[in-house]
Specification:
Elements lengths: L11 H13 L5 H8 L2 H11 L8 E7 L11 E6 L4 E7 L6 H18 L10 E7 L12 E3 L13 E5 L1
Parallel strand pairs: 3-4, 4-6
Antiparallel strand pairs: 1-2, 2-3, 5-6
Length: 168
């Protein structure tokens, strides 16, 4: 056993810079987004604004996760379920890594797998919503308005775990 490590002492300037950075942080900061959105009181109104058509009244479950399965890794994200059994994956994406479609499909597949692992039959799978909040235009259209993409079922209601992909 060696000597105990000495705690690093920060200078007043380093402390002031860290405090200023913290005070200027917004929800676009990954850490703050992750910490705030795992609170039902913050997540519920967010989902109500993003998906008003669902009539979400209550968030029954919120799980802060780093991955869905041990076989693949993810950034920090929030998994939630509402009173109707709808499942949500919510994440803040700061940098455009040009892989949102692939990542959303991986999240979707993992969430379907989790339902199947719990014994849910294919015909009874609950809807899944993958939501990315971005600070960039994911489609490079130059538009600053939210992009919402849903599959077209010819006017029919979808049965099972239809893929819903939302960006803003």
């Amino acid at each position: 056993m060696g000597k105990p490590r000495r705690k690093r002492r920060y200078t007043a300037a380093e402390k002031a810079a860290a405090l200023q950075k913290f005070e200027q942080a917004t929800l676009s900061n990954d850490y703050l987004f992750f910490r705030v959105m795992q609170q039902k009181a913050a997540l519920l109104p967010t989902l109500q604004r993003v998906l008003p058509e669902l009539g979400i009244v209550k968030i029954c479950q919120v799980v802060a996760q780093r991955h869905l399965k041990a076989t693949w890794q993810s950034k920090e994200f929030i998994f939630a379920e509402d009173q109707a059994g709808n499942q949500f994956n919510v994440e803040m994406q700061i940098a455009n890594e040009h892989n949102l479609i692939q990542r959303s499909l991986a999240y979707f597949a993992g969430m379907v797998n989790n339902q199947l692992d719990q014994g849910v039959k294919y015909r009874d799978l609950k809807p899944i919503y993958v939501i990315f909040f971005t600070r960039f235009d994911p489609r490079s259209t130059g538009l600053s308005t939210p992009v919402r993409t849903m599959p077209d079922y010819g006017g029919r209601a979808s049965a099972g775990p239809s893929f819903k992909f939302y960006l803003s």
